Amino acid sequence: MEHTTKDRILDEALILFAQQGYKGANLRDLAARLGLSKSALYKHYKSKEDIWNALLDKMEAYYAQRFGSMDNLPKTPDSLEEMFQMTMGMIRFTVQDPQIILTRKLLITEQFHDARVCRLATKHFLEGTANIYAKVLEGMMDKGLMKKADPAMLAFSFTAPISALIHLCDREPHRQDEAFGKMEAFVRYFLSLHASPSAVTGTTL
Fold it and tell me: Which one of 2, 28, 34, 69 is separated from 183 by 20 to 30 angstroms, measured CA to CA?
């Protein structure tokens, strides 16, 4: 897919907004970072707010396509090990993808100043991920891999500790290996605790 000037503008705007916040970001600085004049910038986007909303649209679509959403649910795993590998892959994407790191920083800093960002922060840090996993865990229950329980409550108890450790990676990047070790141990513990007896037989969890 061709990387257009509009795409370049949004890529650079993500970095600028994540570093300086919406109010602190200056379109003159954005244009200079792109090697464009301010008037050339306005040929692609009408205003700073226009860039901001286009950026939020792009990042929401980027996350949904690569991580998942209620309209793009992950495949229900066929085993506990597959669930473990899928979850750790999603965690690695969340922690290591440069655009997602910047987006998370932007959401954290701007959630108190912008109503849309507040909703997106709640979705990505809490409700959205829990809702996706509620569907995944419900599917695993239907396959006989997990004990029957309330999928929503089970998903909340699964995703909340992981989310806390992801934020630890953001705050203290030097502790990322430690956090990954804890997440791996937690995911295996959770699956072994809630798996059906037949699913545990013969597994290494």
Answer: 69
Question: Same structural domain for residues 137 and 60?
Answer: no
| Model pLDDT for residues 150-168, shown as the tens digit of each residue | 999 999 999 999 999 999 9
Q: How many CB atoms lie within 10 A of CB 12?
A: 18
Give which of 102, 159, 96 is closest to 128, Cα–Cα. 159
- Which CATH number belongs to the domain containing residue 145 in this structure? 1.10.357.10
Domain ranges, residue 118: 67-205
Letter string b/e over residues 18-46, b meaning 16 or more CB atoms within 10 A of that residue's CB: beeebeebebeebbeebebeeeebeebbe
Rounded to two decimals, the pTM is 0.86
Task: Report residue 177 CA to chain centroid gap.
Answer: 19
